[in-house]
Amino acid sequence: MKATSVVQIQNERVIVTEWRFAPGAETGHHVHAHDYVVVPLVTGTLRLEEPTGTRDAALTAGVSYARPAGVAHNVINANSFDFRFIEVELI
Question: Which domains does the chain have, with CATH numbers?
Answer without folding.
Answer: 4-90 (2.60.120.10)
